[in-house]
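> @MW can you paste both from yesterday?
MW: sure, first one:
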Amino acid sequence: MSSCSTCPSAKNKAETGKPSAGMAIQDEIISSTLGRIRYKLFIMSGKGGVGKSSVTVNTAAALAARGYKVGILDVDIHGPSVPNLLGLRAGIEADERGGLLNPAKYNDNLFVISMDSLLKDRDTAVLWRGPKKTAAIRQFVSDVNWGDLDFLLIDSPPGTGDEHMTVLKTIPDALCVVVTTPQEISLADVRKAINFLQYAQANVLGVVENMSGLYCPHCGGEISLFKKGGGRELAEKYGLTFLGAVPLDPATVVAADRGVPVVMLEEDSRAKQGFLELADNIAAASENSLEAVASTHA
């Protein structure tokens, strides 16, 4: 993970305006790697605290439980949380045969790459600017032995910064899943994120409403804690697919603290049902998105 803005290849590109030989080779490797991954899902939002990582992890775990081969690429360089949500403590090891990094293995169907797994001390802050983050994200694709996957879910930081632009440039056929919560303060930032995706001519798979109501664990009654339905209304306004709603559920918090996705718990819960339905909807929407992707980039 040594590439940065001061390396000769970066200087060469800046001076000539053309990719260096090293960058061109890496582009070919990235293209070859992505060619073995059927669907790339970019999970994003303009707002922090809406549960992007929780949606990413539980959707990935649900898809893996359905028998799909799934990878999670955590590009939240400064605040990675995927390994903690999955209870992964082991670091990432190199593949001696090919010289690549092997992603951390959660189970036979689910694999993870995250900056958190590369740090000796997980409490260490990562003080990187744009060029180093861009180089790291590219290496997370080119230098990792992802193999053949049905889905690669990319967990992003809040906003529309360097990480998002790098992902969309590196993975132009990524299908974007926009996560929001029902209240207006979240929807306002998500509208900006959708505008960013439209400007970037990205493929938007649909919208997810997280924290959609709260079901009382005692009486089973529903409480509209953060309102409800804002995500669906947003999707309808922009002509996007509404992929599903996941309610607030104490089981999600307990599962996250245990390092187990709520969809992997034996006991049933509203959140577990919501995430399983969301995963099924995302799988179906991805399978039906090929014509849309082809027409977008024709």
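MW: second:
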Amino acid sequence: MRELKVVGLDVDGKRIICEAAGTGEKFILLPDERLRAAMRGERTTVPTLKTGGEGSSALTPREIQARIRAGATVEQVAAASGMDVERVQRFAHPVLLERSRAAELAAAAHPVLSDGPSVLTLQETVASALIARGLDPESTTWDAWRNEDGRWTVQLAWKAGMSDNVAHFRFTPGSNGGVVTAFDDAASELINPDFNRPLRPVAPVAPIAPDPQPTLPVAVDEQPARHEEDKAPAEPDPAPTAQKSRSRKRKPSVPAWEDVLLGVRSGGQR
């Protein structure tokens, strides 16, 4: 709960001007019967506000900066304290710059691998890992915040398809830019040069064996056989042809001598 002190009265003499301790911010207080009774020392039914609870009262500038430094956003602090976003932004701005600077230093630090710190920086290592997986390293965003133990946690966010992914590192400033260590599995995948699993939160898919070339039934073209069958009866029968040839070449029958004497023709007619 913030402490106010009375500065004076407004020009109309009906409102009290108060000032916040430490910031010099001015407030106007409208006196009522409860205030007058409190000034006389009388008990009133004014509810007592709880201190320290989120949303119960405004926060001091130091409290605002402490929450922003711990990773909260301006909107989260404003919603929790009931303060205006513009007022929270005024005190949060220098701390946001501090967080951005810590993220830049962490990106330039060297990730610690199984055999010691890497020669490449964290940003170079992450860019190589994303490119190898077909992702755009320019679409990443960096953030950092300070933990209760004073150490910095660095967050890297990127998009893979329709999924949003994050990886967290622990940053320790030091000589030659400092070092970073992986804090979760996603961070380990990014800095591990031998890790080939895709950087996506999807379930593993069992490999599908390629389908063998289907054996199609061989279509038997019966048309040629039918042609052969059709052609076979069409061949002329040699026997009738020979018979016809013989009939055509047969000489006219000569009547017998008895038929000539008796006057009988070959057809049996007289």
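> thanks! The CA atoms of residues 18 and 27 lie 5 Å apart.
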